[in-house]
Amino acid sequence: MTTSNPACSLPSMLRPGPPNSDAGCSITAIATTTDVERSPIRSSAAPPLPIWALSATARLHRDRQLNERADQVIVNEYQPGQGISAHVDCVPCFGPEVAAISLGSAYTMDFLDPDTRVRIPVRLEAGSLIVMTGPSRYRWRHAIAPRKSDMTPRGRVTRGRRVSVTFRTVLG
Ligand SMILES: O=C(O)CCC(=O)C(=O)O
Hints:
This protein has 172 residues and is α+β, with helices and mostly antiparallel strands. It has four helices and eleven strands, in the order αβααββββββαββββ. It has one domain: Sandwich (Jelly Rolls).
């Protein structure tokens, strides 16, 4: 999310209910591979990050989760049944580290090898941080299947609302 609108504070965005996109917060519920790969990124066009996002990027850097300090933050909201298509985040647009914090309901993210079609499910628990670097950033595609439950080692688990906060560094 790239906005300085105070209505776009993280707490307001995490409140249950419809996305407050009318408040100027950019919440992406779903995105397609095409959206992700073709989206034009111009860092000069983006307003400053809100305070909560600045403190999150600072902490990720200070705690050495990210080598570079992220300068782009997006918030995605998923209602049960929604997902995100398999994609690699735009290579010429973003740096070598992509991190995401998961909030709300746990969801399974699939990592897909483009050649062998091997699929590795990764459970994204509430409060967890995932950092994609190297092959997980550049080779494997990641996706969230649009379904209402996930099969886990503990059986089928119904999905609730999930909000993810993704941190990237804009190139150029
Ligand atoms: O929701 C997530 O954790 C990942 C989001 C994502 O892959 C993206 O916005 O490109």
